[in-house]
Amino acid sequence: MSHTAHIRSHRKPRRSASTIAMRAGVAGGVLSTLAVAGASGSANAAEPVTQTLELPTLTADLAAQVAQSADVTQQAAASYELQAERDAAAAQAAKKAKADLAEAKKKAEEAKKKAQEAAREKAAERAARSAQRATLSASVDTGSSDSTDNSRSTGSTGSSVSTSTSTATGSAAAVVSFVQAQIGDAYVSGGTGPNSWDCSGLVQAAFKQVNIDLPRVSQAQSTAGTQVSLSNLQPGDILYWGGAGSAYHVGVYVGDGMFVGAQNSATGVVMKPLSYDPPSGAVRVL
Length: 286
Fold this sequence. Notes:
Blueprint: H1 17-46, H2 60-137, H3 170-181, E1 186-187, E2 196-197, H4 199-208, H5 218-221, E3 226-228, E4 238-241, E5 249-255, E6 258-264, E7 268-273, E8 281-284
Parallel strand pairs: 1-2
Antiparallel strand pairs: 3-8, 4-5, 4-8, 5-6, 6-7
Helix pairs in contact: 3-4
């Protein structure tokens, strides 16, 4: 045996005839396929190519998106409409507030004018009252002797104010007694007793004691009876300050040159001499 017999041969094994035939067949098939493909390509190159575009189908998801978009648009429109309504309401409110402010200013101005007019009227009344006091004070007795009728006359002009010391009788005594009993009570505007009075309320209540119904206010009371001279006063006569029919204060003459009246909130009901606040005139009811 040869010494190399156990070493494998490095020679490539011979290919069998069947293997060669198979490979030849595959190669031939490939060439045939290429030939057919080439021919087909040439034929296709000669003809125009037409492309067909297919529109997307409206799916359920797309329909939902469209509906949602419509809802959003509707909500936005509603929101704009609501905002427009709010803006219109705000503009209307601002307009009304402006009108109300103008009306309030107008009323305030009118009230101011009325207050100023009332103040002027009161000032005029005070001035008239002061002038009347000055005029009447000049006629008050300053030293003349008593007359036979127990009256004191005064003034170079011959005018006089009665200060009769005679005692009131009958109805006059009842009136005088009533007003004197109220001395010390409070003055309250509009007061008609029993513990607070204004001037005309006190006079009216005094004459009710003798069943005489007087008007409620000073202006009417100053013309309720017969006008009498201040030089011929009797107890029970009604004194007034201001003009007859336009008096702003009244009281009751009680004799001895004294009167009783509800003067003001500072003094209340007091008895004072005529010189304290000389009256403008007097009326006699009894």
